[in-house]
Amino acid sequence: xxxxxxxxxxxxxxxxxxxxxxxxxxxxxxxxxxxxxxxxxxxxxxxxxxxxxxxxxxxxxxxxxxxxxxxxxxxxxxxxxxxxxxxxxxxxxxxxxxxxxxxxxxxxxxxxxxxxxxxxxxxxxxxxxxxxxxxxxxxxxxxxxxxxxxxxxxxxxxxxxxxxxxxxxxxxxxxxxxxxxxxxxxxx
Length: 188
Known about the structure:
- Its main location: other.
- The protein is α+β, with helices and mostly antiparallel strands.
- The chain has 4 helices and 5 strands.
- It has a single domain (about 5-25, about 70-185), classed as Butyryl-CoA Dehydrogenase, subunit A, domain 3.
């Protein structure tokens, strides 16, 4: 039972870490929601903003000026939280690999291997909470921005909605949290 649980947690951790990394690197955290008369598809991310022409498929991206430039708080906070979540998930994955029963590293000391799995679960839990906070921070800010414009009857031509990168960040963080629960509580 313990080995099956470890392998399940490892698979979920690997997939969730990949989701977190993809969410951090991709640029569709916000997508334009008004596609009735649009001839282009707009995506805003943590690092750049891209526009894809729907007629010919040409995609152009504008990088944000600099990492040190003045950016909106939601971008800076989300970048920080997501990068930290990525690093913690990667560290937890490496620790978990060494703590798996099917790996011959420290095979003569099963107590240390169990502690490594437990430690990976704790690290993964911290990373998942940071990733969830970052993804939810961004999503709530998109919702509040849109609600403010609607409540004041302001139409700027483009309304943004949650993009697939935001959903991917939430899914990766949730998967990391589930794997953390499996490793932290179910191994004992």
